[in-house]
Design brief:
Helices cover about 25% and strands about 20% of the residues. The protein has about 325 residues and is α/β, with parallel strands linked by helices. It has a single domain (about 5-170, about 210-290), classed as Vaccinia Virus protein VP39 (Rossmann fold, 3-Layer(aba) Sandwich), CATH 3.40.50.150. The strands form 3 sheets. It has an 8-stranded mixed beta sheet with strand order 1-13-12-2-5-7-6-11, with helices on both faces. It has a 3-stranded antiparallel beta sheet with strand order 8-9-10, with no helix packed on it. Helix 6 crosses helix 7 (about 260-265). The protein is globular and about 50 Å long. It starts with a helix and ends in a 35-residue tail after the last helix.
Length: about 325
């Protein structure tokens, strides 16, 4: 094996959780090592993001992850260089995603109205427009009421195959997307046991389309932790079931609260997670240990500012890889 490949392989285990700049981490990974990648980067809001208020969310936050600053602000999504700086930040990371996917791999990139159209142009250029699969609309009913435009009640998830025709895709029906309390067979399909020993699969509803009506997490939701942009498990479980097989590897390089990794392990997949914020990794590690996932490094006991990369990060302040799951 060439020396470069050996160095890259050293960064990868069956389940991997890493604190630090995701671009540097991705460059250490071997080609084609991620069967499915979900990215939930900052949304170009130009605002700092804070954890949800409330005692319940605060109780779920690991004690070792708290400092006087991290109790209030989870990460910074301000871009002094504007859209140009944001896209310069995203470009090399999307390039690495393409390298890390095998021919059967798929990328899901989560965005909203602020930057989705710019990111689609970028993805068309890097992946090829012919490998575009879907523009998934995640519809929810939370948020304020608009009086000067139509209320914005959806996010956009751009889906690209590494190579069209060889990509994984398991069609689903739009019955129940909540899989709490269900078992999963070897293909990741949810079922319930019965007293007679039969397996009943959930096949209700028509075939799933590209509009997903999945509730947004409330501040008192059972699965809620102290992370401002946490995504529901139902959303990530749907993605993982659609585009990967059990035993394959799912990666999230803006892992935030770790929803992608938790969903992957619940469905029998291996996982890779990375985030610049030590607090995010602490929360993720706690959630994985709570479901009996593979042994991971203990959460950090002290918050330290990570050095910003020299070239591709805005000058002030460096956004901390999350806006995610």
């Amino acid at each position: 094996m060439p020396a470069r490949s050996r160095r890259r392989s050293d960064a990868l285990g069956p389940d991997t959780l890493h604190t630090g700049d995701n671009l540097a981490f991705m460059k250490q990974l071997p080609d084609g090592c991620c069967d499915l990648i979900y990215l939930d980067p900052p949304f170009f809001t130009n605002q700092p993001r804070r954890a949800p208020a409330g005692r319940k969310a605060a109780r779920k936050q690991p004690r070792e992850s708290l400092t006087s600053d991290s109790r209030d602000r989870s990460y910074d999504d301000r871009w002094p260089d504007g859209l140009r700086g944001y896209l310069a930040f995203m470009l090399p990371r999307v390039e690495q995603c393409r390298r890390l996917l095998p021919e059967h791999g798929t990328l899901y990139l989560h965005a909203d109205w602020r930057a989705a159209h710019h990111l689609r142009v970028m993805l068309d250029d890097l992946f090829g427009a012919k490998n575009f699969l879907n523009e998934v609309i995640w519809h929810y009913r939370t948020g304020g009421v608009a009086t000067r435009w139509f209320g914005r009640k959806h996010d956009t998830i751009l889906v690209y195959a590494r190579r069209l025709g060889r990509h994984r895709f398991h069609a689903q029906r739009s019955g129940a997307y909540r899989t709490d309390g269900l078992n999963h067979d070897e293909n990741g399909r949810p079922y319930k046991n019965t007293r007679r020993g039969r397996l009943y699969f959930h096949r209700d509803g028509p075939m799933l389309t590209d509009v997903w009506d999945i509730p947004f997490l409330s501040t008192v939701a059972r699965e809620r932790v102290a992370w401002p942009t946490q995504k529901p498990l139902a959303l990530l479980e749907r993605i993982i079931q659609a585009s990967s097989n059990p035993g394959e590897r799912v990666a999230d390089f803006f892992c935030g609260s770790g929803t992608t990794l938790v969903a992957a392990r619940r469905l029998g997949r291996h996982c890779i997670g990375c985030d610049l914020a030590a607090r995010a990794i602490a929360i993720t590690g706690q959630r994985l240990r709570a479901i009996g996932a593979a042994t991971l490094p203990p959460p950090p006991t002290e918050m330290k500012a990570a050095p910003a990369p020299r070239r591709d990060r805005p000058r002030r302040p460096p956004p901390s890889n999350p806006r995610s799951g």
